[in-house]
Design brief:
By secondary structure, the chain is mainly beta. The protein is 9% helix and 33% strand. The chain contains three helices and 14 strands. It has an eight-stranded mixed β-sheet, with no helix packed on it. It has a six-stranded mixed β-sheet with strand order 5-4-3-2-1-13, with no helix packed on it. The longest helix has 11 residues, at 145-155. The model has no long low-confidence stretch (mean pLDDT 95).
């Protein structure tokens, strides 16, 4: 499995067998141009969408892909995917709505994309033994730095991929990754990662900052 990062909350997961998954594709230029990541010019077999905001739900850019945007259990192209209901705020969606955490089980690996998670009140039972966690770290409209740290410790993923933070191509009112990274030591910056069910065993709570590709 190869994972790269388009930007914001959008990752590209390429399976060994050629199946391509894209998470939370953004609409380029949305929100009056405050999102400036370039268009995603890759095709996908499966697209997961955590919630209905323009920086996460650009499904129309992927004709022919299977679009998953609701909670439930799915088996697509022999890949097991579960959408787990959560919320974009601490009031069960009253202010920012629902959010779906997608757990992808494939090639002996368990990958969880947390979307715009805004609460630590989640179904921990379904989120055990995560190999790769993709989680927002910019705060403000998502979980705070303290909450991310709590989730990071409790979920104990082998690899943690920060997302949804302020960059030179994103002028949202959120923080950069620096606050989350402060005081942490096991950090590596890469363009992409390749893992298997054998090699993942060498990782333990490794934070990998993937360079955005768009």
């Amino acid at each position: 499995m190869r994972i790269s990062f388009f930007g914001h909350s959008s990752f590209f997961i390429e399976q060994e067998g050629g199946i391509r998954i894209i998470t939370d594709p953004y609409e380029p230029g949305c929100y009056n141009g405050t999102l400036q990541y370039a268009p995603i010019d890759e095709s996908a077999d499966i697209v997961t969408i955590s919630h209905g905001h323009a920086d996460h739900n650009f499904a129309s850019g992927f004709p022919g892909a299977k679009i998953l945007d609701k909670e439930g259990s799915y088996n697509i192209l022999n890949i097991d995917i579960e959408g787990i209901l959560s919320y974009h705020d601490r009031a069960e969606g009253k202010f920012r709505g629902r959010n779906v955490i997608f757990v992808i089980k494939s090639e002996g690996l368990k990958v969880a994309h947390f979307g715009d998670l805004g609460t630590t009140n989640i179904n921990y039972e379904k989120l055990k033994d995560i190999d790769v966690a993709m989680m927002p770290v910019g705060g403000h409209s998502t979980v705070s730095t303290a909450e991310v740290n709590s989730l990071y410790e409790k979920l104990n993923p082998r690899i943690f991929l920060p997302m949804h933070y302020k960059t030179g191509k994103l002028d949202f009112d959120i923080a950069t990754e620096e606050e989350f990274l402060s005081g942490k030591t096991d950090i590596e910056v890469l363009n992409d990662i390749e893992i298997t069910c054998a090699t993942i065993k060498s990782f333990h709570k490794k934070i990998i900052m993937l360079n955005y590709q768009r």
